[in-house]
């Protein structure tokens, strides 16, 4: 798929399709949708940042919110190596001397009126964030130095960034921080919600295993450990597989214990609920 802007042909990215559904915590969903809302002709959508521990569901929330609006979703992973041209337009050599200009997922969302999710945005440098500064205020455009064009965002375009609250990140400069508002905090889910998330992701799983993993996660949360529902899904999935290969009569306790050990290490066994 291509589009022409100021005489330059851009090759667009494909939208992302994920088999996920947001379970519980409707309040944070409401906050995100409210931030994207436009209530007047002079109003503009906000660019929120979703902050929480790795694995609590920040990307899932953003994706589910976009789908509630019926929009295409484009996910872009930010890293310490992300450059301004990675965020906007990259030149690709095609043939002997011809350049092909490839739009990033973020730019494609801008053009098509989709939702862009900039994942782990605080792993990105100030130089890269600076290239997005005009997009994050009422101007709503970016400039590609590589292609020599300015691209205005579609009125329906929305942007959200996710950020982990860990130490392996850059501090955002104030002029970017003030543009990424509001901050929406995502915490660990309540027990019933956590169980439902496991059930949603592992509908084939035995209830006893899912209940045990939920208990494990809740005990870990109470001790302020950083184990998340993503870890729980991996533990339960591995335990289900181990149990399917077990000899007759072998209890699922051994499968669960081994799954926790091999997924998170020996320290995590202190939260293993005795069966």
Q: What's the overall geometry?
A: elongated
Which blocks of ≥5 consecutive residues have pLDDT under 50?
none
CATH class of the largest domain: Alpha Beta
Q: Fraction of residues in helices?
A: 25-40%
Mean pLDDT: 92
Largest sheet: 5 strands, parallel
Specify the CATH homologous superfamily of the largest domain: P-loop containing nucleotide triphosphate hydrolases
What is the number of helices?
Answer: 10
Total domains: 2
The termini sit apart by: 55 Å
Order of helices and strands: EEHEHEHEEHEHEEEHEHHHH
Strand content: 15-25%
Tally of strands: 11
CATH topology of the largest domain: Rossmann fold
The appropriate CATH architecture of the largest domain is 3-Layer(aba) Sandwich
Describe this structure in words.
With 275 residues, this protein is an alpha/beta fold. The protein has helices at 26-36, 58-68, 84-87, 105-112, 126-130, 174-177, 191-201, 207-222, 229-245, 252-264; strands at residues 2-5, 8-11, 49-52, 73-77, 89-94, 98-103, 115-119, 141-144, 149-152, 158-164, 183-185. Strands 4-7-10-3-11 form a 5-stranded parallel sheet. Strands 1-2-6-5 form a 4-stranded mixed sheet. It has a two-stranded antiparallel ribbon with strand order 8-9. Helix 9 (229-245) packs across helix 10. It is elongated, with a radius of gyration of 22 Å. The chain starts with a strand and ends in an 11-residue tail after the last helix.
């Amino acid at each position: 798929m291509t589009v022409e802007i100021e005489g330059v042909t851009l090759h667009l990215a494909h939208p992302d399709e994920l088999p996920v559904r947001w379970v519980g915590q409707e309040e944070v969903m409401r906050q995100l949708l409210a931030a994207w809302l436009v209530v007047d002709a002079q109003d503009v959508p906000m660019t929120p940042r979703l902050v929480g521990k790795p694995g609590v569901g920040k990307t899932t929330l953003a994706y589910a919110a976009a789908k509630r609006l019926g929009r295409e979703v484009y996910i872009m992973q930010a890293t310490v190596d992300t450059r301004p041209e990675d965020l906007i337009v990259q030149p690709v050599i095609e043939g002997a001397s011809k350049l092909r200009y490839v739009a990033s997922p973020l730019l494609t969302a801008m053009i098509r009126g989709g939702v862009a999710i900039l994942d782990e945005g605080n792993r990105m440098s100030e130089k890269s964030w600076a290239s997005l500064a005009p997009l994050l205020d009422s101007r709503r455009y970016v400039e590609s130095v590589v292609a020599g064009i300015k691209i205005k965002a579609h009125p329906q375009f929305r942007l959200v960034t996710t950020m982990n609250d860990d130490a392996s990140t850059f501090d955002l400069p104030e002029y970017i921080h003030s543009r990424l508002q509001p901050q929406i905090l995502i915490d660990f889910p309540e027990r019933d919600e956590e169980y439902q998330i496991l059930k949603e992701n592992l509908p084939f799983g035995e209830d006893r295993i899912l209940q045990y993993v939920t208990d494990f996660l809740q005990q870990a949360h109470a001790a302020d450990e950083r184990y998340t529902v993503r870890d729980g899904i991996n533990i339960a999935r591995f335990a289900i597989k181990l149990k399917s290969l077990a000899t007759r009569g072998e209890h699922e306790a051994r499968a669960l214990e081994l799954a926790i050990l091999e997924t998170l290490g020996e320290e995590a066994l202190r939260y293993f609920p005795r069966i």
